[in-house]
Amino acid sequence: MIYLDNNATTQPLPEVIQAMLPYLTERWGNPSSLYPFGNTLGQALDKSREQAAALIGANRPSEVTFTGGGTESNHMAIRGILRAYPQKRHLITSAVEHSSIINLCKQLEGDGIAVTYLPVDTHGQIELKDLEAAIRPDTALVSLMWANNETGIIFPIDKIAKCCEAKGVPFHTDAVQAVGKLPLDVSKLPINLLSIAAHKIHGPKGVGALYIRRGTKWLSPMTGTQEHGRRAGTENVAGIVGLGVATQLAGEYLKTGVTHTATLRDRLEQTLCQTIPGARIAGKPGPRVANTCNILIPQINGEACITALAQDYNVCISTGSACSAGNIAGSHVLTAMGVDVKTVSPLRISLSRTTTEAEIATFCDILPRLVLTDSARIS
């Protein structure tokens, strides 16, 4: 199998699995228990918290709260700020956010919260002047993603965070697609909240983290005692240990491997654009994370193409977000960028640290051949 859908999920690394196994087979106690078999597990949670904090540059491990994944982290960030500022009934986000943010904002609108969705230009970027103009006295939070899950486009988070700080508004960033792909240092930026998902960085599914900067006014939307009172429910110790190891390995990859991934991605894009008539890359030449390519191809059916690749060649790619699969309306991200999704089909190809040169070469042979010689099947 050639797996090129790493923005949907990644293969857990062997080191991650090996680190998790003892907590599934031998050390399976409840860390809230009074006896040592359970409460000594707190040491494993502390180590993972330190590892996650180190990857994002947090000053204190205590600023990291473990959650059930990226979606939960996003929801906790937004709902926690709204609880802390009940008199403020306005949120700002963008038109290209992940569905976990968009869908929550739509729900909150039904509850009487006003939401401003900042537009993007044809390169997928917001205008800072639009953000500045959108901030109101009753704005509770600005929530903008660091890197887009469909296109890989990077928002200027440093400028956004400083703008929010100058206006006195808390700032949250969904960094699920940026962590492990970009060097992040929250100690140098006025970011109040940041979301992480382990399974995007070769960790396990069902576990994530929410960074909450010390001093941020935030009230947990969940009542309970775990995670210093911030997140209720027995901790997923094995998953948290897996997240910790994954963040440590991601930090090492940033130092040595991300450049190689970018080289493979660029080679892929150059080859496909040269061999498939009319093909172009969404978001290029703007800043993008190194692993993501969203190629727009005319006169094909994207879902039919993906099905043919999977059935005939054992190749896995997608048309966009896995969380929006089956949405007949098409990509809200590309629509916001002004792409006519009726005339082109997007194919999202996302690499990882495990992607090989041979896999890219094989894929660059298969896809053009499928588009050019079997067009009737995928049109």
What would a concise description of this structure say?
With 379 residues, the chain is α/β, with parallel strands linked by helices. The protein has 15 helices and twelve strands. Helix 1 runs antiparallel to helix 10, helix 11 runs parallel beside helix 14 and helix 12 packs across helix 14.
Task: Characterize the structure shown.
The protein has 15 helices and 12 strands. Helix 1 runs antiparallel to helix 10, helix 4 packs parallel to helix 10 and helix 12 packs across helix 14. The chain is α/β, with parallel strands linked by helices. The mean pLDDT is 95. 47% of the residues are buried. Helix 6 links the parallel strand 3 and strand 4. The protein has 2 domains: 128 residues, Aspartate Aminotransferase, domain 1; 241 residues, Aspartate Aminotransferase, domain 2 (3-Layer(aba) Sandwich), CATH 3.40.640.10. Helices cover 41% and strands 14% of the residues. The strands form 3 sheets. Strands 2-8-7-6-5-3-4 form a 7-stranded mixed beta sheet, with helices on both faces.
The total strand number stands at 12
* Oligomeric nature of the chains: single chain
General shape: globular
In the CATH hierarchy, the architecture of the largest domain is 3-Layer(aba) Sandwich
How far the N terminus sits from the C terminus, by CA atoms, comes to 24 Å
Largest sheet: 7 strands, mixed
CATH superfamily of the largest domain: Type I PLP-dependent aspartate aminotransferase-like (Major domain)
Average residue-wise pLDDT? 95
